[in-house]
Amino acid sequence: MPRTLAVQAPEDGVRLITLQRPEALNALNTELLGELAAELDAAERDAETRVVVITGSRKAFAAGADIKEMAERDLVGILNDPRVAHWQRITAFSKPLIAAINGFALGGGCELAMHADILIAGEDARFGQPEINLGIMPGAGGTQRLLRAVGKSLAMQMVLTGEAIDARHAQRAGLVSEVTQPEFTVERALQIAKVIARKAPLAVRMAKEALLKAQDTDLASGLRFERHAFTLLAGTADREEGIRAFQEKRPAQFKGQ
Ligand code: CAA
Questions:
Q1: Which of 37, 57, 203, 231 would suit a FRET pair with 251, their CA atoms being 20 to 30 Å apart?
Q2: Closest CA to 129 of 162, 174, 160, 103
Q3: pLDDT tens digits, 240-253
Q4: Which GO terms describe its molecular function (predicted)?
């Protein structure tokens, strides 16, 4: 049983992971990151799980790396940091991941949110990379993913000043896709998860991979990947079912085959 997370299955095919370290505003210590990586590994292996939603509390999605834990690490400790392997497992999660963000998403918390494929924010959410105030810089993808999400100028401003932006600004900049009233953030994320959970799993997985490729490859390679993925899906039973269901005017029953 994880101690720092709650895991629920609120809808068919959907897992909801809630970060639960209220005493530290969900700061990401080694234990929490390890438990989160293990839960995502389990969700990856479970064929019934199609989509994962991750959330925190009303006050904080996550306030960053655990600074008290960081204070105990010297350079050797940082070089052998077990959290690096946990982050790599979180990054490798291949099913759709939706973040429902209320309150603070700072430092590693903002970086965790940016691991999600879809970000839904409550009006009170605040996104920031304040590491510069600690004499360090983002180390879990903050410089790379933030720049790709919001562009150079805003990413530079956020990382170099350490100042956070609010949810509406994050939406205008393209970091989040929707802003909700804070009490509906999780509900809205679950609604989206439920829609995706009913789609053909192989098509969803391939589409996610192709979209992520667009961020880190040139157009010609990305288009080649898209064409291969599209062709592969042509051999699936779900494609046949999707087309047949359309012609028979009924909902498709996808099986992931
Ligand atoms: N690590 C450990 N504990 C944290 C924490 C963190 N990142 N953020 C908050 N806490 C703890 C506080 O120490 C406090 O605990 P105590 O009562 O035991 O002192 C408790 O959570 C509540 O926090 P505050 O009293 O500070 O709450 P607030 O509402 O006044 O302020 C806040 C909220 C603005 C988020 C403030 O807590 C804050 O600035 N937190 C640090 C944010 C930060 O710098 N994050 C980046 C960390 S570095 C990083 O993330 C690097 C990386 O991944 C690679």
A1: 231
A2: 162
A3: 999 999 999 999 99
A4: enoyl-CoA hydratase activity
Residues with a catalytic annotation lie at: 65, 108, 111, 131
Residues with CB under 6 A from ligand 1: 24-25, 27, 63-68, 104, 106-108, 111, 130-131, 134, 138-140
CATH numbers and ranges of domains, the chain: 5-197 (3.90.226.10), 201-247 (1.10.12)
Residues 6+ away with beta carbon under 8 Å from 138 = 107, 111, 129, 131, 146, 159
Residue nearest to atom 19 of ligand 1 (CA): 24
Name the residue at shortest CA distance from atom 11 of ligand 1: 24
Mean pLDDT of 1-11: 94
Length of the chain: 257
